[in-house]
Amino acid sequence: MLSFAFNKNGRSECVIGAFRDVSFIAIAIGFTAVNCMAADIPSFWRKTMTNDPATNWFLSEAMKPLPNKNAEILRIYKLGGVFGSMCAGARIDKAVGNAFLKTSGYSGITGKEYEDAAFLADDQFRYFDFRTLAHLCAGSDYMFGPQGHLIPNLIKGAKGEPNISYDRTNPYIRLPSISTAPHPR
């Protein structure tokens, strides 16, 4: 509190009160900053954030193919986009991506087939949260790296961690629908 007390010489002691208030505010801001810096990936997740589907459940679930071939193509397309935009250091090799789209039959999925496949592919990302993203970024080489099991060499330079920060109050990440992606119809 800022006080205007006068000492016996008639001088104001306002400066002392202001210094006390400013120091209290600085300490409060410091604690808040430390708390924000601590909002990183929880340490107990790191044990399972591996490049091996035997220990990374999220990676093993992402590797399970969908029963619909068209939905599987769209799911892999969306996964590649998620990795390229949300994993730290990741870059998409567009030539490899375009080759996948040409050889997979992506341009042949049109009309009602596309809408049904997009619905099934989007369903795989319905409850996508930061924990899922962190584990999938850790397994990016397994899916899209040099010996990738989905599309080899699609992702380059991934560091194995998300490039967005973790929000404990709202861990869910809203991803755009695959049906809004540009597609030849």
Number of distinct beta strands:
2
Largest sheet: 2 strands, antiparallel
Task: Round the mean pLDDT to the nearest integer and report it.
Answer: 83
The run of helices and strands is HHHHEHHHHE
* Rg result: 25 Å
- What ranges have pLDDT less than 50 throughout 5 or more consecutive residues? 33-38
Strand order of the largest sheet: 1-2
Beta fraction: under 5%
- Enumerate how many helices there are, as a single number: 8
Shape: globular
Structural descriptors:
about 180 residues, 2 strands, about 0% strand
Task: Describe this structure as you would to a colleague.
By secondary structure, this protein is an all-alpha fold. 49% of the residues lie in helices and 2% in strands. It has 8 helices and 2 strands. A two-stranded antiparallel ribbon has the order 1-2. Helix 4 (69-86) crosses helix 6 (111-123). The longest helix has 24 residues, at 14-37. Residues 33-38 have low confidence and may be disordered.
Quick summary of this structure?
The chain has 185 residues and is mainly alpha-helical.
Describe the secondary structure blueprint for this structure.
Blueprint: H1 14-37, H2 43-46, H3 57-63, H4 69-86, E1 91-92, H5 94-104, H6 111-123, H7 130-138, H8 140-144, E2 155-156
Antiparallel strand pairs: 1-2
Helix pairs in contact: 4-6
